[in-house]
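Submission checklist for the structure archive. All mandatory fields must be present; incomplete records are returned to the submitter.

[x] Identifier: HTH marR-type domain-containing protein
[x] Organism: Rugosimonospora acidiphila
[x] Residue count: 144
[x] Sequence attached
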Amino acid sequence: MSEETSEDRFFREFGAAHAELRQAFARHVGMSPLRVQLLVRLRRDGEISHSNLRQALGIDGATVTRLVKEFEAEGLVGRRLDPGDNRYTLAALTASGERMANDLARSHQSYQERLLDGVSTHEQEVVLRVLRRVRANVTEQESR
């Protein structure tokens, strides 16, 4: 087997960090990552169709419906037919859902601050520049 290159190490570490970060906060708050993502999306976007949630979260329609119905049963989300097109269902946070989503946002901010403990602002900016460059390179490669 060939020796691992610096590129291999970079993307292996990047991938592992990404995977860990996606799961860590959800574990921290005792929720599934999808439930966290759905609450965050509803907090950010307000009332939104199931179809748009499906696209935004990259999950199938049945999963969106199940999650929204679970939140509805918990009193966190309300649903209604889209008055402009009754083929679509809209979902929005209730007052309880807003409080929970706001608490989640505050908890997330605090969690992020703890994760960056010992990482200087300069180091964060260097990482951001590298990530922006990699993303630009991806776009450039895909346009060829």
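[x] Structure attached
Curator remark: The helical segments are 6-29, 33-45, 50-57, 61-73, 95-115, 121-142. The first strand starts at residue 48 and ends at 49.
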